[in-house]
Amino acid sequence: MELSGQLNALAVALIKIANDLRWMNSGPLAGLGEIELPALQPGSSIMPGKVNPVVPEATVMAAAQVIGHHAAITVAGQTGNFQLNVALPLIAANLLDSIQLLSNVSRLLADNAIAGLKLRKDNINAALDRNPILVTALNPVIGYEKAAAIAKRAYKEGRPVLDVSLEDSGLPADELKKLLDPAALTQGGIHAGGGGGG
């Protein structure tokens, strides 16, 4: 039961990863479009140019089967009486099948989807540049109200936060670029250049 539970947890994690890849690959125009998965088969008949995420889809199906095996193993584990469980063959067969399914699909996902994916940096950067969360870095320098106004204007106008900040913050471009650098913001802590009141 414990082994089956661990396989079940792995299946859940693989479904999560596969679904994230499917969302990030969605598009080419109306989806997130953050990555491009390798094209392993002809595209959709109704959407030419679409790359079907066949490996993540196969991963979800294999993982769903493992979750089903876990349900059967759970019932089988309850079937035992004293020191005898007549359902041990079902438990063994499903465990072995689950191990094989997860071994095969993990390798398939790693080699045929993740290893060959390409980042769509243009789409990622366009979304990141317009993300209002960036203005939180301006709060200690120009104050919450002014930063919030910049975020609202950037969102309303569909413009990069940096561009609106250049117009409305009163800060020089070099300081704004440092403050609004997304990579620096992921580091946490207090950064140089801040410290003003609000």
Helical content band = 55-70%
How much of the sequence lies in strands comes to under 5%
Biggest sheet, strands in spatial order? 1-2
In the CATH hierarchy, what is the superfamily of the largest domain? Fumarase/aspartase (Central domain)
CATH class of the largest domain: Mainly Alpha
Taken in chain order, the helices and strands follow as HEHHEHHHHHH
> What's the total helix number?
9
Rounded to the nearest angstrom, the distance between the terminal CA atoms is: 57 Å
- How many domains? The number is 2
Structural Rg: 25 Å
Please provide the count of β strands.
2
Mean pLDDT: 91
> How is the main sheet built?
2 strands, antiparallel
Which geometry do the CA atoms define?
A: elongated
What is the structural class?
Answer: mainly alpha
Q: Which regions have little confidence, pLDDT < 50, spanning 5+ residues?
A: 194-198
CATH third-tier fold name of the largest domain? Fumarase C, Chain A, domain 2
Level-2 CATH architecture of the largest domain: Up-down Bundle
Description:
By secondary structure, this protein is an all-alpha fold. It folds into two domains: 2-122, Fumarase/aspartase (Central domain) (Fumarase C, Chain A, domain 2), CATH 1.20.200; 130-185, Fumarase/aspartase (C-terminal domain) (Ribonucleotide Reductase Protein R1, domain 1). It is 62% helix and 2% strand. It has nine helices and two strands; from the N terminus they run H-E-H-H-E-H-H-H-H-H-H. The chain has helices spanning 2-25, 54-78, 88-114, 121-129, 139-142, 144-157, 161-168, 173-179, 182-185, and strands at residues 35-36, 118-119. The chain has a two-stranded antiparallel ribbon. Helix 1 packs antiparallel against helix 2 and helix 6 (144-157) crosses helix 7. The termini are far apart.
